[in-house]
Amino acid sequence: MDAGQVKALAKELGADLVGIASADVLNAFPPDPKYPQTPERISPHTKSVVVIVKHIPVGAFRCKTTVPVQYLDMLVLRRMDRIAYRLAEALERDGHPSFVTAAQETDWNYKKASYGRLSTRHLGIEAGLGAFGLEVNILTPEFGPRVYLTGILTEAELDADKPMTEQVCIGESCSRCLYSCPSDAVRHFGIDKRKCATEAQEFGFHTILKFWEAYAQKPASEQKALLADREIFGFWQGLLRVVGSFGDCPRCLAVCPVGNDYHAHLATLQKVIPETTPEKKAKAAGFKQARRDGAEIAGLNDWNIRWVGPDGYQGIVARQLQEFKKRQKEREMEKDNGV
Length: 339
Hints:
Blueprint: H1 3-13, E1 17-22, H2 23-28, E2 48-55, H3 67-93, E3 98-100, H4 120-126, E4 131-132, E5 138-139, E6 147-154, H5 176-180, E7 186-187, E8 190-191, H6 193-200, H7 205-216, H8 220-226, H9 230-241, H10 251-255, H11 260-265, H12 278-293, H13 305-308, H14 316-336
Antiparallel strand pairs: 1-2, 2-6, 3-6, 4-5, 7-8
Helix pairs in contact: 1-3
């Protein structure tokens, strides 16, 4: 199988997007050299990584609560695992040992489990599928950040795709992800993971740990009462179907104006961001000024600019919106003409 056949099969199996990254390149450019998330640390035989994307159905971002998004997250991840497994099987039948990495996993040896063995965001960028946004989610031109990714590590030497060099994110002049973040975790092309987790993982690992540490220190009478606490129900529901324990806060995903799904179904609904504050506006203005002044920005340094887009923002979203409106107008005309 060559690269074209692998991509065609991935699409046939249900992937929305697919790209290929070279293992050599991934080994040479780890997200953080101090904690190298590289294929060679998993298998020294890997030659290529096939990266597949599934988008999160946009209807979930139109709901009054976050529960539909969380449940869809789980369904998307399950679907992606099945596609990736079938692809690995096909590659192996073709004579190339291959295996699938978990789309969402952590390794305790990497920054106390805040990192996985591979960063799927960086895999997607190296495979030419998108670039980092201000909040360092990967933004794809097709679906913005409303996606999940996983990788198939294979010993097949496949032609790799080239990363995008244009910045997909509108950047500091947009800052909608910053305005919408309830825990104010968005940095200048960076994220405060601890702050983010307070909303994104209401019943996540650290919440569970804190609860049981407190529980162990309580007298038996109080422990019995705690067993009926809301948090216990949250932990159970999180284990059952990830609700509350993963992807609990989709605000930055919902308000990002990148992607045709946003133009079609979210633009009107998400136009106003109620979480905006004067302090967040001042923060965004500071980001914009720092960029204008050429200040040293950790998220845009010589190492990280690779994943943001070294050419800067050149209007990809504006061009995309114009093309979307043009297609919409053509469809309306076809409908009026009975086509």
